[in-house]
Amino acid sequence: MSQGVMRFVEGIEKRTNGRYKIEQYFAAQLYKDPDIPQVLATGVLDMGDALSIRFSKVVPEALLVSGLCGLGESESQFHRALDGELGALLDKEFQKKANIKVIAWTELGGTDGIVCKKKQIRTIEDFKGLLIRAPGPANMLFLRDVEASPVDVSSAEVYTALQYGTIDGAITALDSVVKRKFYEVAPHVTSASIGCTMSTALAMNLDKWNKLSPNIQKIFLESGKLAAEYTRTHSWNVKTEAVKFLEAQPKVHLYEVPKQEFLSWQEKVLPSQIKLLKKVAGEQRAVELLGILDSYR
Question: Is the pLDDT score of 33 beyond 90?
């Protein structure tokens, strides 16, 4: 996210010949991720980049791109939709409900990894009875549907919880498996696109946005594309690098779930995920959103 923001800022400063300077604050120096929607809406901050799920209380439609499990075929499907009709609809709702203009949809990367201490997870039956850390409500629903027991553990405590057997496994990203060294204490790693995307909204206070000239607005949007392109490419690259690293570890057992097997996972878990979307966004709007996403297959 930080690297994407840096490219956004560089794009603006370059295209305006330095007339626009943007101060950047990383790693919650000003506000934590959950606070971004409120401070953007009120204009305390001019711009911010936050996970789309942070906005879903005010803009329920944002839940669609917040990592729902088993939804969609790939990251690229979500990206095409966000660059098209879905992105336009969400931007309209952000402006109307949150006083926020979405400049770009950047990518943090979905949940594509499962680590387990006891055994390799290859089929849906292998989840049964395991205590597994679930990041967020969608993943908790996923685990309940596959008859595992979801456990709420902070990301900072996952390694220790795996090490001492407080949990049997964790849903995470393959990149996190490597960077947080989960493979050291849970050598059974499974690759599966549980959540295709975890989109973030690079956004601006709407009142501030409306004060920009059309030409400068165009430059902001063009620079936003640089951020989106970087994060999307980077999220794919780090997954590829993580797989190569894990394959090279002699004590790690890496298994990629075949497409046909994963289809059975989707069939099992999608009804609950869609029910969650309908509960949050309303049934009619949820059907509309799912229809738009499906049109970008």
Answer: no
Residues 152 and 215 in one domain: no
- The answer to whether position 247 is within a domain reads no
Across 234-254, b (16+ Cβ under 10 Å) vs e yields: bbeebbeebbebbeeeeebeb
- Do 51 and 191 lie in a common domain? no
Question: pTM score, two decimals?
Answer: 0.91
In this predicted model, what pLDDT tens digit does every residue of 186-197 receive, in sequence order? 999 999 999 999
Task: Give the total number of structural domains in the chain.
Answer: 2
Residues whose CB is less than 8 angstroms from the CB of residue 161 and which lie 6 or more positions away in sequence, other chains included: 133, 151, 153, 167, 170
Domain carrying residue 84: 2-109+196-240
> Which residue, chain included where needed, has tokens 């596959």?
146
290 pLDDT more than 90: yes
CATH number at residue 176: 3.40.190.170
Would you state the pLDDT for residue 110?
87
Tell me: pLDDT of 68 over 90.
yes
3-state secondary structure of 132: strand
